[in-house]
Amino acid sequence: MNEEMTEKERLLWKQAKKRVEFKRHLWTYLIVNLFLWIVWAMTGMEFDHREFVPWPVWSTVGWGIGLAFSYFGAYHGTTVNAVDKEYEKMKNK
Predict the structure, then answer these.
(1) If you average pLDDT over residues 30-34, what whole number do you get?
(2) How far apart are CA 67 and CA 56, in angstroms?
(3) Of 1, 22, 36, 78, which has the fewest Cβ atoms less than 10 A away?
(4) Model pTM greater than 0.90?
(5) 3-state SS class at 55
(6) Phi, psi of 20 (to 5 degrees)
(7) Is residue 76 classed exposed, middle or buried when 0-12, 13-18 and 19+ CB atoms within 10 A define those classes?
(8) pLDDT score, position 46
(9) Rounded distance, CA 29 to CA 35, Å?
């Protein structure tokens, strides 16, 4: 039982680390993209004439996709809860 708790604690620490990393990633994303949009606004807000979108959109959307994966890994990829739920399902059969 003690060994089992150690494994669970290890998984919880790993999950906590993922959540802290996500929060840091989020703040970096917000600061850098805010800076890019300010630069775009201060340089005349020129559009790319081929696609008619502001150039900071590409970094915001591209990086945002990566940020979304980071979020789901940190908050919805919890192996501790998933293992407990699966155990309870099997136990109740």
Answers:
(1) 98
(2) 16
(3) 1
(4) no
(5) coil
(6) -65, -40
(7) exposed
(8) 67
(9) 10
54: which DSSP letter?
E
For residues 53 and 60, what is the distance between their CA atoms, to the nearest angstrom?
12
pLDDT at 44: 78
What does the alpha-carbon distance between residue 64 and residue 44 come to, in Å, rounded to a whole number?
Answer: 25
E-assigned strands of 1-93?
Answer: 47-48, 53-54
More confident residue, 1 or 43: 43
Assess contact for 38 and 56: CB atoms under 8 A.
Answer: no
> 13 is written with which tokens?
């620490």
Strand-pair partners of 48: 53
> Are the C-beta atoms of residues 21 and 15 closer than 8 Å to each other?
no
The label of the residue with tokens 């501790």 reads 80
